[in-house]
Amino acid sequence: MEIYNLQYPQSITIDDKGPFSLAIGFFDGLHRGHQAVIGEAKQKAEQLGIKSAVMTFDPHPSHLFGNGENKVGYITQYPLKSQLIEEMGIDTLFIVKFDRPLSSLSPEKFIELFIKDLGVKHITAGFDFTFGSKGAGTMEQMEALSNGEYGISVIGKVTDSDEKVSSTLIRKLLSEGNVEKTATLLGRPFRTVGTVVDGEKRGRLLGFPTANVMPDDELIIPANGVYAVRFSFADQTYDGVCNVGVKPTFHDPSVSKPSVEVHLLDFTGDLYGKEVSVDWIARIRSEKKFGSVDELVEQISKDKEAAKEILESN
């Protein structure tokens, strides 16, 4: 897959222009709704005998215009986002820098520079996709301004149990620890990518050594609690039990920063400095404070057995 990083006005040209069948959107999470958009663009590319492409934007608009409280946590970031798009069989990925100059473009100018000048012959987007200054451009306007130079496909609302499948809903579910429902909406387990860093090594002293995974600060992580997970690095995957939280048995929850610590069920070795991924399969329980270390060790043993049972059936 060819990847182009575009920025207005510095770099909006590419070496190999279309024709492209283009899926356009922010696509955070690449959930089932996004997959429907990208799948339609790929199908149109095959029908028209042209290349398939995806155009996405970085960063999220809330990171440009919102204050600290309004910034959304990312469900997927690059390079995972790029990897997932490539796995869908897309030929070309455009990553457009979302900044103030871009956000001030009129819908007409956006279409001229990022659609027509790139050789796009068909555009697919969700029914609620907007573009141009203050989101003034709609898919109806995209079609009206085509002058016959490109076709349009609009994907309607994708639902699950009468709820719209959306990045907003997925963020809500993750904030509640509902990784099972999240996986249904994503069509795959929710994944966190991070680096293993030094921790307190308390798990080792308790007989349950853990890998302390440090994800990017802008990535959303599930709510505090204990989870059955699958842990991958260097093309190997292991079953594990993960604690997200502040370890209230040992720390003051009001001042501690949540950590992601994974105990692998069948692995021994040094993981420090390794880039790893955690696939969240099911939530076992919420985080709690124990009256003694012995009570905690007993509960960890139960959590480990619960994780084994869950992962054997998933």
Write up what this structure looks like.
By secondary structure, the chain is an alpha/beta fold. It has two domains: 2-156, HUPs (Rossmann fold), CATH 3.40.50; 185-312, Riboflavin kinase-like (Elongation Factor Tu (Ef-tu), domain 3), CATH 2.40.30. It has ten helices and 14 strands. The chain has helices at 32-48, 61-65, 80-87, 100-103, 107-116, 139-144, 167-175, 179-186, 202-206, 293-312; strands at 2-6, 20-24, 51-58, 92-97, 120-126, 151-155, 159-160, 163-164, 190-197, 211-215, 225-233, 236-245, 259-264, 275-285. The strands form three sheets. It has a six-stranded parallel β-sheet with strand order 1-4-3-2-5-6, with helices on both faces. It has a six-stranded antiparallel β-barrel with strand order 9-10-13-12-11-14. A hairpin with a 2-residue loop joins β11 and β12 (236-245). The radius of gyration is 22 Å and the shape is elongated.
* CATH class category label of the largest domain: Alpha Beta
Under the CATH scheme, the architecture of the largest domain is 3-Layer(aba) Sandwich
- Number of DSSP-assigned strands: 14
Within CATH, the superfamily of the largest domain carries the name HUPs
Distance between the termini: 31 Å
Proportion of strand residues: 25-35%
Largest sheet: 6 strands, parallel
Number of domains: 2
Helix content: 25-40%
Show unreliable segments.
248-252
